[in-house]
Amino acid sequence: MNDRFEQIAERLTAIEEELRDLAYERLTEAARAPDSDTGVRAAADEKRLLQARRAIARAIGALAPSRTDGEA
Fold first, then answer.
1. In b/e form, how buried is each residue of 9-37, taking b as 16+ CB within 10 angstroms?
2. Which of 24, 33, 35, 37 is a good FRET partner for 61, with 20 to 30 A between their CA atoms?
3. Up-side HSE of residue 32: CA atoms within 13 Å toward CB?
4. 1: exposed, middle or buried (C-beta count within 10 Å: 0-12, 13-18, 19+)?
5. pTM surpassing 0.85?
6. Residue 9's closest CA among 69, 70, 59?
7. Residue 71, by phi and psi: left (phi above 0), alpha (psi -120 to 50) or beta?
8. Are 27 and 42 in contact (CB under 8 A)?
9. CA angle 68, 9, 62 (to 5 degrees)
């Protein structure tokens, strides 16, 4: 694979991990108070973060098709 592709895939992997951590935080916040305004916003944020994370995962797959999910 092209070294530039590999470098981009590595950066995207770090971004995907950051999105995963942030989504977990928002999900935890939503679970604490699911009916509050904060909980509702946190749940909506978590869904957006999940969508973004999936898009990043697809981009990683396109740049590094030989990688398996979770491999760095």
1. beebbeebeebeeebeebbebbeeeeeee
2. 24
3. 11
4. exposed
5. no
6. 59
7. beta
8. yes
9. 65
| Owner of token pair 């749940």 | 43
Encode pLDDT of 41-71 as tens digits. Answer: 999 999 999 999 999 999 999 998 665 545 5
List, in order, residues 6 or more apart from 50 with CB less than 8 Å away: 23
If we measure between CA atoms, which residue out of 71, 63, 72 comes closest to residue 3?
A: 63
Question: CA 23 to CA 30: how far, in whole Å?
Answer: 10
Angle at 67 between CA 70 and CA 64, to 5 degrees: 120
